[in-house]
Every structure is written in structure tokens, then in C-alpha cells.
Design a protein that fits this description.
Strand content: 15-25%
CATH class of the largest domain: Alpha Beta
CATH topology of the largest domain: Aldehyde Dehydrogenase, Chain A, domain 1
CATH superfamily of the largest domain: Aldehyde Dehydrogenase, Chain A, domain 1
Structural class: alpha/beta
Distance between the termini: 57 Å
Radius of gyration: 25 Å
Shape: globular
């Protein structure tokens, strides 16, 4: 990279600036913001700035390094607030819980500018994508409210079958631990956090390892908009805080987005894992298959976005490209030309696509993958590929990639693009069948019979098959899941409400006496559960 890649501090636009140093000592337990007097964890931005003494990595703040003691206090608060299902929050009506969430959403929107800027500074996400993440998260919360209203409307009626009348409603599971990923520290985290809350569960929430400061502007809103103990927010090293929570056996739900190894290690700590419901979004190695008759303009455009959007740091990113030998030369030429048009720079720069990476040591890891591929016969095909400048790793196209290389199997989670030439349709099929992962894949082509065979080969292997488009999560109304080591449980706006709840049935024989009892309960509104109220 050129010496001008990282900016002079005075050249940073005012609209993208954050306070010089955000020392966070606050954390939320039982409806109170506590102040931490102990050790703090410095938050290093992936962005370096030019100073008189040279390039300096920007330290933008710090967060509390809480211990197991504080984590257990947060858990105790959540357990007390749930109170074995007898707490005020789980017994609240659906419309009352919705009102609490709506109040939070108003407060959240007031913090948009600061949260967006912190996304840029903490994880290097472009301003456009940071704004999109914030706005999409707000939309997701609204969609969750709408979906819950619809779910409640459908549950408000009685069913009569074989002389039995009954009403089926969804109720909370208990105490949930919610942990999100650093690449979408707001959106992916809130897609589990808010369904858990709105269904009546109480929550201990631990923000992502990176992208943690951006939760600070929302702490007061969480405190003010939810009853004490319903949402508790802790910080610190996972091995000390989360391990202690698991070992108590008091967690009923575990919502985690990260690695399958991390999920396995944590689940094993729970003394009764069969009683803990897990909702997991884990690793992926999503392939794209480019067939000889693919629309090359579309395939190249979708694969560029699919492999390199947010530097490839998405679980839904395309992680390996299988290109038919008859078109591989043309595809590579066009793909590499398209990469050269991608703008690299700081997150706030207009039109930027490639930005610095937030994980310490990430560039070393990617270099190791590239070196291993080169040692086993691959070449770097694009200009500047493999170039490193501190936290910046230039997109790197590797070809031909084979099964002797680590990049063939490992999820790179970064801007390294392996291309595998193939001749027989069986080759990509075999890859998917033998893979430890099973989230999504993409097929690019126009031959309906050939595509249909692929669909049938893959339908029992992955959670989503994309035709002539990149892998993705949205729309949020679609199910989002995976097989093998890629996921446990299904998320979407509606599915998330179901996964954080359980159906409970009130049933009685259809006798005159029972009809009279149920009728009185309904007319006099004597039960919060048994009701035919219709939410508008």
C-alpha cells in the first residue's frame, strides 16, 4: 500500500469523529448502571493515524474487565426477574412487552450518529454499511413487533378437536444468555436479543469482543425502558465471565454467534445441557459454482460482492469459488478487473469497499493461508494481491486451489478468494458433501436441468441454495439456518419468536360446565394467558 493509505488525524472529517477517548466503566445489572473501579480493556481501532512520530494505532477507549463475580450477579438478577416464570416480565401481556420495546426503539434512534461512527472506528466497517446496519436493526425490531402481533392474533382463537377445546399460546423459556459477533455487533446481536426479550425471557447480554463500545450509548435506554433485571449487560473476558454463567446450570437459553468450537466448549460447561436450548450461528465455507452457461456479467458482479463485501468478514460470504474449466480464464480475467476497481481506504471515505481489519493478528493468519497455498501450487492473480499494511490486507485471488491447501477447507473470514477449476459436476458436489459446514451456497447458470440436479444434490446439505445470486441472510422474513457445524436452530423474524419460546396449551372437554368456566374467564378478563383479545 502507499504511504498515504492511513490518514492524517486533522484530515478526518468532523462528521466521522468520535470523542477522543471513551472510557467506559458502566455496566448494567438489575436496572442500575454500576461503575467499575477495576481493570479496563483498551479498545484499539484498526485505523492508524499519522502523527509527528509516525503512524500510530488509534486507541479509542476502554471497557470494563469484569470478573465472574459481576457476571454471576447479573445472572442472579435475571433469574430473580424471571422468578421461575412468575416474574412481572414473563407474566406481562404481549402488548405491554411490546410497549417497552417500542420505547427503547425511540431512544435507540437518538443515538444513530454515534453508534454508526463507533462501528466505523471499532471494526472498520464503511459508513454506508454502518448506517445500513443501524437502520436494518431498527427495521428488524419493528418487524419483530409486527410478527409478534400476528402470532398473538393467530393464538387468540380456540380450537375444537375430538371433543376437546383448547387455546395454544407461546410462552418464554426462562433466562437467556445472548452473545453476538464482532462483524455485525449491533444487527446480529439484536436479532437474538430482542426476540428473546419480547417473548418474555430475561437476559444476560455480553457484547462482542470487538465492536463493544457502540453498546455504551444504549445503556441508559436499556436501563430506562425495561424493568430491573430483565436485561443485564456485562463485559469482560469470556473464559472468566461466560464460563462461570454456564457452570451454574441456571441458563435456559444460549444464543451465540461465533465459532463452532467456541459454542461446543461453552455448552460442555453446563451441567444439564439437555435443558438448555441453543440458538447458534456458527462457521461457514459457502461455495459458489459457476457453470459454463452462466451469465458472466452477473456471476462476476455477484461473486465480487459475495466474496469481498465488508472484506469477506461475513458468515454468509462466498468463501470458495468453483469455476468450470471452460470459462475459468474469462471469469478470472473479469473478476480481477472488477477487484481493481474496488476502492480501498478509510471507512468514512465515499465509495470505499476495502477497509482495515479489526482482529489483532488477522493479517498474519491470512498471510499464512496465502503462503500455504503458494507452496502447494497456487498463484496470486490480481495486482497487489497479498499486500499488507499493518491492519490492511489487500484482496488476494488464489488460483488454482486444490485440496492440499488450508484455504480449501478453512474459513478465511477475510479478503482471500480461492478459485477451484472443475470439469465434472461431481467435484463441487463432493466438496459440499464432505464439508464440515452447511450454511449456504450459490449456483450460477441457465441450464434448468443441470441446476435442478444440483438443487436436489444440495437440498439436504445446506440451509439455503441461491440461484444466480450471492449468499445472504435477507430478507429477514426468510429462514436463516444451517446444517452440520454451521448452525443450530432457525432464525428469521417469525422463527426467532418461536425459537425463544415454547407452546403451552390450555385444554378442556367441551362440556357445558367447562364452556361456562372458560367463558367467564374470557368475559371478565381473569387470565393474562387465556384471552381472545385482538392486538391491532
Amino acid at each position: 500500500m502507499t504511504p498515504e493509505f492511513f490518514p492524517l488525524e486533522e484530515a478526518i472529517p468532523a462528521s466521522a469523529r468520535i470523542p477522543d477517548y471513551l472510557e467506559q466503566r458502566e455496566y448494567l445489572i438489575n436496572g442500575k448502571l454500576r461503575s467499575w473501579a477495576g481493570e479496563l480493556n483498551p479498545v484499539a481501532s484498526p485505523i492508524f493515524v499519522k502523527t509527528a512520530s509516525g503512524l500510530t494505532q488509534k486507541i479509542i477507549g476502554s471497557t470494563p474487565l469484569l470478573t465472574s463475580r459481576e457476571a454471576l450477579e447479573a445472572l442472579d438478577a435475571a433469574v430473580a426477574a424471571y422468578d421461575l416464570g412468575h416474574g412481572a416480565w414473563p407474566r406481562m401481556t404481549v402488548i405491554e412487552r411490546i410497549e417497552h420495546v417500542e420505547r427503547f426503539l425511540v431512544r435507540m434512534r437518538e443515538q444513530r450518529t454515534l453508534v454508526v461512527n463507533l462501528l466505523m472506528w471499532e471494526i472498520g466497517k464503511s459508513q454506508k454499511d454502518s448506517e445500513k446496519e443501524f437502520d436494518r436493526t431498527c427495521d428488524y425490531i419493528l418487524d419483530t413487533i409486527r410478527a409478534l402481533k400476528e402470532l398473538d392474533r393467530n393464538s387468540s382463537r380456540f380450537i375444537e378437536e375430538q371433543g376437546i377445546m383448547g387455546q395454544i399460546r407461546r410462552v418464554p423459556l426462562g433466562v437467556a444468555l445472548c452473545m453476538g459477533p464482532y462483524n455485525y455487533p449491533l444487527n446480529e446481536t439484536f436479532t437474538t436479543l430482542f426476540p428473546a426479550l419480547i417473548m418474555g425471557n430475561t437476559v444476560v447480554f455480553k457484547p462482542a469482543k470487538y465492536g463493544v463500545l457502540l453498546i455504551r450509548p444504549l445503556l441508559e435506554a436499556f436501563r430506562d425502558c425495561f424493568p430491573p433485571g430483565v436485561i443485564n449487560i456485562i463485559y469482560g473476558r469470556g473464559r472468566e465471565t461466560v464460563g462461570a454463567l454456564m457452570e451454574t446450570g441456571k441458563l435456559d437459553v444460549f444464543a451465540f454467534i461465533g465459532t463452532n468450537k467456541g459454542a461446543n466448549d461453552l455448552k460442555k460447561l453446563h451441567p444439564k445441557p439437555h435443558r438448555m436450548k441453543a440458538i447458534l450461528g456458527l462457521d461457514a465455507k459457502n461455495p459458489a459454482i459457476i457453470l459454463p452457461d452462466a451469465d458472466m456479467d452477473n456471476a462476476v458482479a455477484e461473486c465480487v460482492t459475495g466474496t469481498l463485501s465488508f472484506n469477506g468478514q461475513r458468515c454468509t460470504a462466498l468463501k470458495i469459488l468453483f469455476v468450470h474449466k471452460t470459462v475459468v480464464a474469462e471469469f478470472i480475467k473479469r473478476y480481477c478487473e472488477a477487484i481493481t476497481r474496488l476502492k480501498a481506504g478509510m471507512p468514512w471515505e465515499p465509495g470505499v469497499s476495502i477497509t482495515p481489519l479489526p482482529e489483532p493478528g488477522k493479517t498474519d493468519y491470512l498471510k499464512g493461508l496465502v503462503d500455504d497455498a503458494l507452496a502447494n501450487g497456487a498463484r496470486i492473480l490480481n495486482p497487489g494481491g497479498g499486500t499488507i499494511d499493518r491492519t490492511y490486507f489487500h484482496p488476494t485471488v488464489l488460483f488454482p486451489v486444490n485440496d492440499k491447501m488450508r484455504i480449501y477447507y478453512e474459513e478465511q473470514f477475510g479478503p482471500v478468494v480461492p478459485i477451484v477449476p472443475f470439469d465434472s459436476d461431481e467435484e463441487p458436489v463432493r466438496y459440499v458433501l464432505n464439508s464440515h459446514f452447511g450454511q449456504q451456497l450459490s449456483i450460477f447458470g441457465t441450464d434448468s436441468k443441470r441446476i435442478a440436479r444440483y438443487i436436489d444434490d444440495f437440498s439436504n446439505q445446506v440451509g439455503r441454495i441461491n440461484l444466480n445470486t450471492q449468499c445472504q441472510r435477507g430478507p429477514d422474513s426468510f429462514p436463516f439456518n444451517g446444517r452440520k457445524d454451521s448452525a443450530e436452530g432457525t432464525l428469521s423474524v417469525a422463527d426467532a419468536l418461536r425459537v425463544f419460546s415454547i407452546r403451552t396449551l390450555v385444554a378442556a372437554k367441551t362440556t357445558e360446565g367447562n364452556k361456562k368456566i372458560v367463558g367467564q374467564i374470557l368475559r371478565n378478563r381473569e387470565s393474562a394467558f387465556l384471552t381472545t383479545d385482538y392486538i391491532f
